[in-house]
Amino acid sequence: MAPRILVFSGSIRSGAYSSRTADAAMKELALQGAEVTRISLADYPLPIMDEDLEKEKGVPENAMRLGRMFAAHEGLLICSPEYNSSIPPLLKNTIDWVSRISRDGERALKPYAGKIVALCSSSDGNFAGIRGLYHLRSVLMNVGTQIITEQCSVARASEAFDDDGSFKEERMARTMGKVCHSLIEHVQMASLRR
């Protein structure tokens, strides 16, 4: 059975480099035989994480929708920009809200349990957003995911893509190919252990 991979970007800015990187990842994963779902966090707006709000109203429905989607996929591929050498607030807020989920009505729901994650970054600078991935990796490990070693960081992202969304540089295309291959392989190995 084809591994189910959920792909999304940590930015909702129009023309975001991380969204273009996520599109490239989606195409590569599909080429390698994965069943890919590509979403935008713009479709799941959330208030700022607030335990008082959670106590009063519960976990927001959009966080529940995301939690169900995370749980329905064996792997995640997250493409993130870097904000001041760290995680963008949109992405951190999303991760935090989903981490608050433990039940969906009468049944247990653990969106991050057993999840295999691949990380990508992009920026128009030479560091390619890689500094933010250090913090993102730490946060995701804390919520119980397994993060693969391979990652793809796209430098000078405004010049990195062709008109069709593919990478101009063969080296970058190969790097993304290796990330996607490793993610699929780790998901398949984890499925065999279950």
Automatic annotation (TrEMBL):
One of its GO terms (molecular function) is FMN binding. GO terms for cellular component: cytosol. Residues 3-157 form the NADPH-dependent FMN reductase-like domain. It holds the Pfam family FMN_red. PANTHER family: CHROMATE REDUCTASE, NAD(P)H-DEPENDENT FMN REDUCTASE LOT6. This is NADPH-dependent oxidoreductase. It comes from Phyllobacterium salinisoli.
